[in-house]
UbiC transcription regulator-associated domain-containing protein
Amino acid sequence: MTLRQALRHLSDEGLIVQQAGKGTYVSPPHLAYRLGSLRSLADDLRDQGHEVHTRVLDSSLRRPPSAVAVQLGAPALRLERVREFAGRAAVHQVSWVRKPFGNRLRPVDFTVKSLYAALADAGVAVARATETIRPDVLDETVAGHLRAAVGTPVFVSDRTTFSLDDTMVVVDRAVILGDMMEIRAARAATGLSLTWSGSQP
């Protein structure tokens, strides 16, 4: 087998990535995020043994955009974060938390604690969430935070989280770089299980 054939075989197996004019790179392992659970992406990745870093860009009480204010009221806690793994910014996330829960979370260090864990510590029992995921392209504002080009393919996740008494607690939007995540489905006779998986570039 020639070197060219070996490289083609490794590329076909998804073990390396070849970029014209740039070189050949080892493909990173895939990461899985279970959509069927109420856990955060960061918690799921850490459980898989991956190191995830969170940068907090904003944590303040503000008036939400009108579409969010209709759902949560105003003011609300605005929590803006960037998730990084493998040394690369991968996810930009803006979460709005309604009063009085948002007030209780203001002292929390979200670089080390997930939002759901902080809510639990504040006595808020999360019961369910609805989530929609759609493809999009990176806009100028978020592109700067993710250090990626405007127009880069992304997934946009919009999630609304409810407490045990069905009170809407959190409205959340996450923008995820498309080359680092993919959606997987595991089908069975009794149902459908969906997961996120991600790969480092």
Summary: The helical segments are 3-12, 41-47, 66-72, 101-105, 115-121, 140-146. Residues 3-199 form a domain with the Chorismate lyase fold (CATH 3.40.1410.10).
